[in-house]
Amino acid sequence: MTATGNAEGFGASVKRKEDQRFLTGKGNYTDDINRRGQSYAHFVRSPHAHARIRGIDASAALAMPGVLTVLTGQDVAADKLGGLICGWTIHSKDGSPMKAPAHPILALDEVRFVGDHVAVVIAETASQAKDAAEAVAVDYDVLPAVVSTADAAKPGSPLVHADVPSNLCYQWELGDKAATEAAFKNAAHIVSLDLVNNRLIPNPMEPRAAVGDYDSGTGTFTLFTTSQNPHLARLVLSAFVGIAPEHKLRVVAPDVGGGFGSKIFIYSEEAVCVWAAKKVDRPVKWTSDRSEAFLSDAHGRDHVSHAELAVDAEGRFLGLHVRTTAAMGAYLHTFSAAVPTYLYGTLLAGQYTTPAIYVEVDAVFTNTAPVDAYRGAGRPEATYLLERIVECAARDLGKDPAELRRLNFIRKFPYATPVALEYDVGDFDASMDRALELAEYSTFPARKAEAARRGKLRGIGFSAYIEACGLAPSRVAGALGAGVGLFESAQVRFNPTGNVQVFTGCHSHGQGHETTYAQLVSEHLGVSLDNIEIIHGDTAQVQYGLGTYGSRSGSVGGSAIIKAADKIIAKGRKIVAYRMEASVDDIEFKAGVFKVAGTDKQMTIAEVAFNAYVPHNYPLEELEPGLDENAFYDPQNFTFPSGTHICEVEIDPETGVTQIVKFTAVDDFGRIINPMIVHGQVHGGIAQGIGQAMLEGCHYDEETGQLITGSFMDYCMPRADDLPNFTIDATETACTHNPIGVKGCGEAGAIGSPPAVINAVTDAIGIRHMDMPATPERVWRAIQSTRLPRAAE
Amino acid sequence: MSSITISMSVNGKAVTAAAEPRTLLVEFLRETLKLTGTHVGCDTSQCGACVVHVDGKSVKSCTMLAATAEGAAITTIEGLAKDGELHPMQAAFREHHGLQCGFCTPGMVMSAVDLVSRHPNPDEHTVREQLEGNICRCTGYHNIVKAVIAGAAAMRS
Amino acid sequence: MYEFSYHKASSVAEAAGLIASHPDAKLMSGGQTLIPTLKQRLAAPSDVIDLSKIAELKGIKVAGNVVTIGAGTLHAEVAASKDVQAAIPALAALAGNIGDAQVRNRGTLGGSIANNDPAADYPGAVVALGATVITNKRRIAGDDFFTGMFETALEADEIVTAVEFPKAEKANYQKFPNPASRYAMVGAFVAKTASGVRVAITGAGPTVFRWNDAEAALSKSLTAAALDGVKASADNLNSDIHASADYRAHLIGVLAKRAVVALG
Lengths: 793, 157, 264
Fold this sequence. Notes:
The structure holds three protein chains of three kinds. By secondary structure, chain A is of the alpha+beta class. In chain A, 28% of the residues lie in helices and 24% in strands. Chain A folds into three domains: 19-26 and 487-633, Aldehyde Oxidoreductase, domain 4, CATH 3.30.365.10; 33-143 and 208-287, Aldehyde oxidase/xanthine dehydrogenase, a/b hammerhead (Aldehyde Oxidoreductase, domain 3), CATH 3.90.1170.50; 300-471 and 637-787, Aldehyde Oxidoreductase, domain 4 (2-Layer Sandwich). Chain B has five helices and five strands; from the N terminus they run E-E-H-E-E-E-H-H-H-H. Chain B starts with a strand and ends with a helix. A five-stranded mixed sheet of chain B has the order 2-1-5-3-4, sandwiched between helices. By secondary structure, chain B is of the alpha+beta class. Chain C is an alpha+beta fold. Chain C is 32% helix and 25% strand. The longest helix of chain C is centred in the last third of the chain and has 19 residues, at 245-263. The interface between A and B is large, with 58 and 56 residues.
């Protein structure tokens, strides 16, 4: 890209175009949509973690005021609808494909977690539907359940699916086992660590919602839904559930109030609403309340791991062996199989030259809500494990944790890791140096001493992370088991008067695409921001798209836009060449103006657009009218954002209350389109990471399988007074393989921060490890453990 | 189903409508009056997406019956900007990128405006404490805090 | 919510008449606990009697050594009251730290104590300050008012109208909020009153209770050091995912000491 001096273009902290509507209450979220004649759905959900359905008696509910119908799994089966699917197929060590039990949109004969969908009541009002749902009598034969990830595969554990032995979905491996074993034989030190990556509930502030509509005149279904990727929803609902063929199913994701992964997936409720709309011949609306969201949104993380790191006498990492058990919940969800494998095992090299790595992952079913991607998806799990064991290595070896990391940094790029990735570029020293400077690491001992004088424990913790972003590349994803390509598409359409509509498959639900994509186009085509509109989220308007997740919108979606914009420029050059009677090769384009080289002849891009739509005498064999171009972009590789996070905490030893006194993040996201927005993404990611490390944790009752953390009264969401201001900076090594040099920034905060927090907390207390979240009681107990009198010394 | 007639002033306009006694103020605003700027993010009075002003004080409209608001003057996010001009707090949220997905924003802004009426010159600590009743999942609060401090300054001048 | 009939009472007498004639009704003051309970369908009253517009339930009066706060007075009003701040600053501070700003703009003293949530703050003040709860029928000593988890000495048709708080020589309330809900996980209210040192603990057990051992120790010496070696028993304390009974017992000691230090 050329530096055009565009004040609204690449690199400018432009204020967001989307803010006006959100700030004035004019956003258009799914629950804000009301269709004429709308009815309301309420779901009957399983109160049991595991039960056989002996029968459902809806007669009392059907007799209640306003009730239109009650639908059950039997109705789904009678209509021969398919179930929900997992888009990735993982193969076990022995070559066998993963076990993917059926996931019906309403339970047929068995329920497998508290909140599982049993039936739906459709009524004139939401209250009537809810009233009647209580009157649906379900006869359950309660079965034994397992909710513990660690216990799920143990002999004697109840089976979630009768046909999945030991609850094992797959037993996957990656890396060179023999080389890793050899590395351990040569090790001077072996550092080992057991750790749990706590289960989380994503909780975007907008609960999920869906409005299904059916037009019997045209036979067309419309689904308004809280989705991060409406095209994928349409594909699954068409091809797998079988609601309607794609050309008869429009999916609209209007304004969406946050997703963090949890709205990537295709859920039962949206399938049921659009299916039921035809059955009742009325629009059907469902809006989750928060309690339902806790039960039925896909959860995140939930790993139990054992790791060992082989280190030589100087501190160089020789080998890493990881064994992880990952929960899938009761059913495989849209992406769930890929998360603890290709988004996890592949990241275990981190920033280090560890030559031999071997990872084994057992994925297990449990009687809990499905577990799928949540901000970071696999990469936070890898980073947490690696940055914790590296920290333990530093402590075991008595080395400075920053220096031990530096000793092992990768410095030559491209770098092929032992776990299947090729890092194209990076500069880990640069982010570490800057982070140490901003965090004032050198003067930390003085701060610790000062805190000690006040009776407080102060600690500092590091995390040097790398992530793989920008899903695609389709070639790689396909080889790894992805059911679809993961390219992105864009359309750039000039209207005759010179303004531009850009259609993208990357939905925006907080990321600010309507601004950053417009900046990209403004920079590239020399059109002012006011004259650019970004359109997303509607399958009837947007050609295609794979959606927003995996920090892919900039690197993949943005590159698709640039590719389409380049086609606009190429077309413009042809038009100008024709109009100016010059050779196409002589037409130059810069900052919105086409020039005939070496002359003063020129046309603005707006003039070209107008010309393109009034083509009275174009040579039609060579030049078509119009200025409207489509592109599909599929990258060659992942992008690899990286960085260093440093957390400094102060603990009140009397209560265990831990305060983050400073949090520093220095990230390398490649080139940055809008620093204001990128910093905002980092802040939000860090808040979720700190949430995981200190506050959040999903608990199911081990005996009953009931969700204990079923509301904000018990699930601890980070609030303003839990968090500090963040110290943020960036270093830059541009991505080498996409046209804009960006890497992605949406997940880094959630990936880098949790180990920094736990490293700081354990440093402050002087212990080796503590599982997340570091709640006051856990911290207090850990402090007590360090103060116990030593036995028999 | 019995319904009652409820009258109140909303954003300066007198409104009267029938509703069930169990209707929450937020339901009355969103469903009866179609003022969908006020949001519902939880069912335990924790998240604050539904905050509106009732007689000038910030209140969680999901935790108040519409019937209780009979005769009250309600201001919602739709009523904050005047003559097409953003309220200084709205403008500060835009200027400081204090919003991402926008869902918590209406409640956050309404709480912030009320906060300034109690604390005209709030520092960071006060803002963080006073926003205890509003949960944002996107921003990490960093820019919200900046926006509220700036918005308070703009409201003073 | 289940369906119910709604009544707006304009006087205590009218409310009392309504509750007497509607035995399955619920009284609603600020509604900050009742409405969430109704939304979760954990209660199904036939009628809701709204007390929020009853003028005689509102207001703060200071007369001599007694601060009388109407049951319908908002937490925000108590917190902001210059009179309360001057007479019993710990009480104003407690009110200013209940829930969040929006809850304080609706929640009332009477609603809080009549509900007697084990994690509520006000019961600590009522007991530690030796307050008297006034109802439409009688006066109830603070010590006798809170009888168990969500249970009080109130009769079914009895309405709290005000609470009389005697001024304390010194008082302080220390709260350890539940990280998720922000209710008190443990609260310790320490007061030096005319009748001696009183220590009330809220949040930790099924209902507010006086910590007798601490009172005995502090009566001898009103210093934090006096509590060294005085341990709260974990027996009968609440235990949940946020805090075990042991940890709550430990926090009782820490917070009580901090309250004593804050007494100055």
